[in-house]
Input
Amino acid sequence: EADIYQTPRYLVIGTGKKITLECSQTMGHDKMYWYQQDPGMELHLIHYSYGVNSTEKGDLSSESTVSRIRTEHFPLTLESARPSHTSQYLCASSEGGSNGELFFGEGSRLTVL
Amino acid sequence: GQSLEQPSEVTAVEGAIVQINCTYQTSGFYGLSWYQQHDGGAPTFLSYNALDGLEETGRFSSFLSRSDSYGYLLLQELQMKDSASYFCALGGYNKLIFGAGTRLAVHP
Output
């Protein structure tokens, strides 16, 4: 069973607020990811990290930022939320190498009013 | 860049076999993965093909042909609980790019 946790699970906030979505994993995985997914749609990679102090932007442009100060923690921050940020944000991690297996958290569903 | 194509919807009856195809375009990749996602849930890993050929995991099998830029997921003995979205994904060393997903509806 995967040990990757996201908080909050649900968040409703007003436009202009700053938010941080938390993601933690206890598996010691070097690689971590943030995907954005609208209901019934594909997953878009917005950020990834292959280790401490390494972060990269994904294929979908995003106004969010991430940090990786500790192996187990990969928070995502929106400095000023807008209604267009309304979506589900999925955090995932994987072991080193390339076996294609990602472990996903349960997601954070964000609604910006 | 990379892109993947899958059918948007597939319908089948309980006990049947269904195949979900995935075609892709890429300049290079390590392997093709498959994920299942139930409504409101997180994606869960099903299968991975690094090499051409068939990989079998219980009722699920996955196939890859690099020369045809094509793969598929085969689900046998369908059950109602298999109703979900299925995503193929191209694996690079540091990231995984997902297709748009195929919604499978299993009927009695």
Q: What stands out?
A: Chain A has a mean pLDDT of 92.
